[in-house]
Write a structure and sequence with these properties.
By secondary structure, this protein is mainly alpha-helical. It has 5 helices and no strands.
């Protein structure tokens, strides 16, 4: 039986992914799209690492406290396959919360759209398979 907290967090994550996908499908008609994508990415990323943490705890692995630890452990036990991408997301997530300039925002937008979204979306399947 799946832990209720994991199930609830997975449901929240599905909604976050859907909202991120919605904004990624919008045409870039103004600079607000970049901001909206980055904000939804930040939220989705936060839910993702906390979902991984809950899944690890459900499996009896409680040492992971920070996103970096969670990604390392999740990769080690096979919850995620592409640890490098998760560590790149961590770097970009830190950039989005501590600095803001248009050039950086546009570069991160493209990484979210071209690289990160697929990995974020794949997490649903990877979590379900690991339970």
């Amino acid at each position: 039986m799946v832990n209720q907290k994991v199930k609830e967090k997975l449901d929240t994550y599905r909604k976050a992914i859907s909202r991120l996908e919605d904004i990624l499908n919008e045409e870039i008609s103004n600079d607000y799209i970049y901001d909206a994508v980055i904000r939804r990415f930040e939220f989705t990323y936060e839910v993702a690492w906390k979902l991984m943490k809950l899944t690890l705890e459900y499996k009896g692995i409680v040492e992971a406290r920070s996103p970096r630890d969670v990604f390392r452990e999740a990769f080690a036990v096979g919850i995620i396959k592409n640890g490098d991408v998760w560590f790149k997301m961590l770097t970009d997530r830190n950039l989005t919360s501590h600095t803001y300039d248009q050039e950086t925002a546009i570069a991160i937008y493209h990484r979210i759209k071209d690289d990160y979204f697929e990995t974020l979306n794949l997490l649903i399947e990877q979590i379900e398979r690991s339970l």
